[in-house]
Fold:
Amino acid sequence: MTDKTNITLTINGHDHAIAVEPRRTLVDAIREDCGQTGTHIGCEHGICGACTVIVDGEPVRSCLMFAVQAAHKQIRTVEGLASGDTLHPMQQAFMDHHGLQCGFCTPGFLMLAVGVLERNPDISDDDLLDVLSSNLCRCTGYQGIIKAVRAAAIEMRK
Ligand code: FES
Ligand code: FES
Structure:
């Protein structure tokens, strides 16, 4: 059996002291060791984007990162987007523009879009489409997602 390493994951500003094997993925640690199940697991090998979280300001696929690599970094997940009862503009836009159906892909799309727009609020429409095409949705046909992210981009620039 592999020895475990003690690490602290800081998720949405809260510290979680956990012990993990070096090979434990960040998404497994977030969900199973820290109890934050809003981040979803789809393909588990970097294709679908369902597991996207923001680490030190950058969207990452948390199935492709080891938990030990995220120690001492600021991790943001979908649970941290809303402020109390007020949804983040991206969450509100997904509701308003039918950006979700089953919702499985939604946390990943939200974190991807928020992360990209925070880093580059004036991203061109072509680049935005390129970014969104990196995550997979089997339900919506993408049009609602694209509309939602465009609407949220306008709100987030205000
Ligand atoms: S579960 Fe990580 S990219 Fe699919
Ligand atoms: S809403 Fe079902 S996979 Fe995207």
Summary: The domain at 5-79 is CATH 3.10.20.30 (Ubiquitin-like (UB roll)). The longest helix spans residues 143-157. The longest strand covers residues 5-11.
